[in-house]
Specification:
With about 200 residues, the protein is mostly helical. The protein contains 9 helices and 4 strands. The chain has one domain (about 5-200). The strands form 2 sheets. The protein has a two-stranded antiparallel ribbon with strand order 1-2. A two-stranded parallel sheet has the order 3-4. The longest helix has about 30 residues, at about 5-35. GO terms for molecular function: phosphotransferase activity, for other substituted phosphate groups.
Amino acid sequence: MVLSKRIFDLVAAISLSGLLLPVMAVVAIAILLIDGRPVFYVSERMKGPNTGFRLWKFRTMKPDASDSGPSGGNKQWRVTRTGAFLRRTRLDELPQLWNVLRGDISFVGPRPPLRMYVERFPEIYNQVLKSRPGITGLASVYYHAHEEMMLAHCKNAAETDAMYSKNCVPRKARFDLIYQRNQSICFDIEIMLKTVFKKLR
């Protein structure tokens, strides 16, 4: 990662942590009171072709030890009472500020993929993961809603996996590589602002 990008991430993460800690406390208490424990969902994601890390989110689904793969229509029954709101507003991703502070991810970059897809599509992710993964990115701004709509129609894990593999992986990679070729602090700020204002709308 370029030093200027890392410095920007640290300054922004520290500043936002101070502002958002009260919001995170309210969200955590709401999950605890309404849905019970655990409050957080921790899952392995990849920051390099062979390097994983633990990604933190607020829990939005009922726990399932056998859970794997992306969320499709087959998992909708597991979304908790607070989960739908947290996902819609992306408040579930606030704990990822910790991952930014640790250097696992950046604010802007490709969304960190599951190991199963990195291993299945090495020719794609060897290139995509030359950029540090991010909380948001071009694909999050321009493709996330379409991805959710497609996966929502999937009725089982196999169907969700097939749809994600065939349509989402290559299309998101195109956005990620466009970002990679045009990466700059100004571009990062633009993507962050578009992410926020898109959710406000």
